Amino acid sequence: MSHLRDEDIVEQFARSSGPGGQHVNKVSTAVTLRHIPTGLSVTVTTSRSQAMNRAEARRRLAEKIAGAARARKLNALAEAARDRRRKARRSRGTKARLVESKRRRGETKKMRGKVNG
Protein backbone atom coordinates (compact mmCIF):
# COMPACT_ATOMS: atom_id res chain seq x y z
CA MET A 1 0.00 0.00 0.00
CA SER A 2 1.15 3.50 -0.71
CA HIS A 3 1.84 6.01 2.04
CA LEU A 4 -0.78 8.77 2.16
CA ARG A 5 0.39 12.29 2.92
CA ASP A 6 -1.73 14.14 5.47
CA GLU A 7 -1.76 17.34 3.40
CA ASP A 8 -3.35 15.45 0.47
CA ILE A 9 -6.31 14.28 2.56
CA VAL A 10 -9.41 16.18 3.68
CA GLU A 11 -11.15 14.66 6.70
CA GLN A 12 -14.82 15.17 7.52
CA PHE A 13 -16.69 13.81 10.50
CA ALA A 14 -20.44 13.31 10.81
CA ARG A 15 -22.87 11.59 13.11
CA SER A 16 -23.14 7.95 12.28
CA SER A 17 -26.32 5.92 12.01
CA GLY A 18 -27.27 2.39 12.94
CA PRO A 19 -26.54 0.48 16.14
CA GLY A 20 -24.60 2.16 18.93
CA GLY A 21 -27.39 3.93 20.73
CA GLN A 22 -26.79 7.25 22.44
CA HIS A 23 -23.06 7.16 21.61
CA VAL A 24 -23.52 7.34 17.81
CA ASN A 25 -26.29 9.89 18.20
CA LYS A 26 -24.11 12.27 20.23
CA VAL A 27 -20.60 11.74 18.80
CA SER A 28 -19.47 12.31 15.22
CA THR A 29 -18.06 8.82 14.58
CA ALA A 30 -18.57 8.57 10.81
CA VAL A 31 -15.34 9.45 8.95
CA THR A 32 -15.11 10.59 5.33
CA LEU A 33 -11.66 10.96 3.78
CA ARG A 34 -11.13 12.61 0.38
CA HIS A 35 -7.82 12.36 -1.50
CA ILE A 36 -7.36 15.74 -3.19
CA PRO A 37 -4.96 14.72 -6.04
CA THR A 38 -7.19 11.86 -7.27
CA GLY A 39 -10.59 13.05 -6.03
CA LEU A 40 -11.34 9.62 -4.53
CA SER A 41 -13.29 9.51 -1.27
CA VAL A 42 -14.18 6.88 1.32
CA THR A 43 -16.75 6.93 4.14
CA VAL A 44 -16.55 4.52 7.09
CA THR A 45 -19.23 4.06 9.77
CA THR A 46 -18.51 0.47 10.85
CA SER A 47 -17.33 1.16 14.39
CA ARG A 48 -18.58 3.26 17.33
CA SER A 49 -15.06 4.64 17.65
CA GLN A 50 -14.02 7.62 15.54
CA ALA A 51 -10.35 6.59 15.81
CA MET A 52 -11.07 3.07 14.52
CA ASN A 53 -13.22 4.44 11.69
CA ARG A 54 -10.45 6.90 10.79
CA ALA A 55 -7.84 4.11 10.62
CA GLU A 56 -10.15 1.91 8.54
CA ALA A 57 -10.92 4.84 6.21
CA ARG A 58 -7.19 5.47 5.64
CA ARG A 59 -6.66 1.78 4.84
CA ARG A 60 -9.59 1.69 2.41
CA LEU A 61 -8.52 4.94 0.76
CA ALA A 62 -4.98 3.60 0.24
CA GLU A 63 -6.44 0.42 -1.34
CA LYS A 64 -8.72 2.46 -3.59
CA ILE A 65 -5.85 4.69 -4.76
CA ALA A 66 -3.65 1.64 -5.44
CA GLY A 67 -6.49 -0.02 -7.38
CA ALA A 68 -7.02 3.11 -9.48
CA ALA A 69 -3.28 3.24 -10.24
CA ARG A 70 -3.33 -0.44 -11.30
CA ALA A 71 -6.34 0.21 -13.55
CA ARG A 72 -4.59 3.19 -15.19
CA LYS A 73 -1.49 1.07 -15.80
CA LEU A 74 -3.53 -1.78 -17.33
CA ASN A 75 -5.43 0.66 -19.55
CA ALA A 76 -2.15 2.17 -20.77
CA LEU A 77 -0.78 -1.29 -21.60
CA ALA A 78 -3.99 -2.26 -23.42
CA GLU A 79 -3.90 1.00 -25.39
CA ALA A 80 -0.28 0.34 -26.41
CA ALA A 81 -1.19 -3.19 -27.53
CA ARG A 82 -4.12 -1.83 -29.58
CA ASP A 83 -1.85 0.71 -31.24
CA ARG A 84 0.72 -1.98 -32.05
CA ARG A 85 -1.93 -4.16 -33.68
CA ARG A 86 -3.43 -1.22 -35.57
CA LYS A 87 -0.06 -0.06 -36.90
CA ALA A 88 1.20 -3.54 -37.84
CA ARG A 89 1.79 -3.93 -41.55
CA ARG A 90 -0.12 -6.57 -43.49
CA SER A 91 1.82 -9.54 -44.78
CA ARG A 92 2.33 -9.89 -48.53
CA GLY A 93 -0.14 -12.78 -48.76
CA THR A 94 -2.84 -10.94 -46.79
CA LYS A 95 -2.43 -7.86 -48.93
CA ALA A 96 -2.63 -9.94 -52.14
CA ARG A 97 -5.88 -11.60 -50.97
CA LEU A 98 -7.35 -8.21 -50.08
CA VAL A 99 -6.48 -6.72 -53.48
CA GLU A 100 -7.84 -9.80 -55.28
CA SER A 101 -11.16 -9.63 -53.43
CA LYS A 102 -11.42 -5.91 -54.29
CA ARG A 103 -10.76 -6.66 -57.96
CA ARG A 104 -13.49 -9.34 -57.99
CA ARG A 105 -15.89 -6.98 -56.30
CA GLY A 106 -15.20 -4.34 -58.92
CA GLU A 107 -15.90 -6.83 -61.71
CA THR A 108 -19.18 -7.80 -60.07
CA LYS A 109 -20.20 -4.16 -59.93
CA LYS A 110 -19.33 -3.63 -63.59
CA MET A 111 -21.80 -6.40 -64.46
CA ARG A 112 -24.63 -4.31 -62.98
CA GLY A 113 -24.58 -1.83 -65.84
CA LYS A 114 -27.40 -1.44 -68.37
CA VAL A 115 -27.78 -4.20 -70.92
CA ASN A 116 -27.36 -2.92 -74.50
CA GLY A 117 -29.52 -4.74 -76.88
Number of domains: 1
CATH domain class name: Alpha Beta
Task: Give the biggest beta sheet.
Answer: 3 strands, antiparallel
Q: First CA to last CA: what distance? A: 82 Å
Q: Helicity level, as a percent range?
A: 40-55%
Radius of gyration: 31 Å
Total number of helices: 3
Specify the overall morphology.
Answer: elongated
Known CATH architecture: 2-Layer Sandwich
**How many strand elements?**
3
Strand order of the largest sheet: 1-2-3
Could you tell me the strand content as a percent range?
5-15%
Mean pLDDT rating: 89
| CATH fold field value | Double Stranded RNA Binding Domain
Order of helices and strands: EHEEHH
Query: What structural class do helix, strand and pairing data support?
Result: alpha+beta
Low-confidence stretches: none
